[in-house]
């Protein structure tokens, strides 16, 4: 089976899940932590080399305060949970903003845990404008290759994006790295994550003809 | 009905269509010209404000010579056909390269035909690296807004991307403008374009919850 090297995860539908259970919207986020760990373990098992989780974005921080606090806490917990595994962890996002949780500052340079293992990236207070805007600062103008000049330059090309919650869009997820990615959409909400979702996505990806635009 | 303002068209499957008819691959491209005009007329009828056609890319020019000639000619014809309509036409692509057809030079600044009408953009010898690479030249560094600094800055945000030929990826199509776009995939090949494809895509788009990342 031809496996994707790098999988992008858009864990959408936490609020809709909470509402469908009669809970208030912000209650859905903490139910997304365990799925993130399950997915990590599946990736480890089958041999995926890199995972990027879409944590929260600068756009998201404009939501009501109780939601912002809930998704920020769920993201902090998610990163901490993965730091107990064999993973090489990096948090990517605008840490100059007060919306960036200080608890995650330590991870804004890649840190190895256990045997290292899978490269895991979390996008936290991320925005594509911020990511590409780094090009304009000219700090890394040693090359004509824009992929070396964006803020997320330590995140590799994404082969497969899996999105939960039925929406068929990137919502600003790593536009440069996703230029050639294949998109797989799962209608179930992220808190309803099942192992089958992951295996179905891999089975589908195996059938795709990868051309990298050629 | 809530309509997309700007539709991106990825007219894929020309070669597979030709092969399915027992023809050689490059024969498929000229069968894509008429669908492009049909689609333009449908957009005009329902009131779409802007269309971007994915013509060919720098990546594509690495294909066998006979294919390159065939898709280049089909693109030239497609632009000329739309120039007979009420359209405000722009060709966006790397015109410094010898792969850029000289016949389309005239359109590399937006030109109005008839009453103007719909804004139509053709991506010709386009590449996302080239598009974003323009930021690094610093020629338009009058602002912190990267959308004003890319080569395709005269192309608006895309609301809906429709791709024919079954593949679920952007293949380098306007990464900045497509950051929030909804993706609709049609399994039929582009030469088998039907009006229903367009109407089904609009019906689907009308049901999407547009948040622009919020």
From TrEMBL, chains A, B:
It comes from the Bacteria. Keywords: Transferase. GO terms for molecular function: transferase activity. Its EC number is 2.5.1.-. InterPro entries: UPP_synth-like, UPP_synth-like_sf. The keyword Transferase applies. It comes from Clostridium neuense. The keyword Transferase applies. This is Polyprenyl diphosphate synthase. PANTHER family: DEHYDRODOLICHYL DIPHOSPHATE SYNTHASE COMPLEX SUBUNIT DHDDS, DEHYDRODOLICHYL DIPHOSPHATE SYNTHASE FAMILY MEMBER. Signal peptide: none annotated. It holds the Pfam family Prenyltransf. Belongs to the UPP synthase family. Z-FPP synthase subfamily. Gene3D superfamilies: Decaprenyl diphosphate synthase-like (3.40.1180.10).
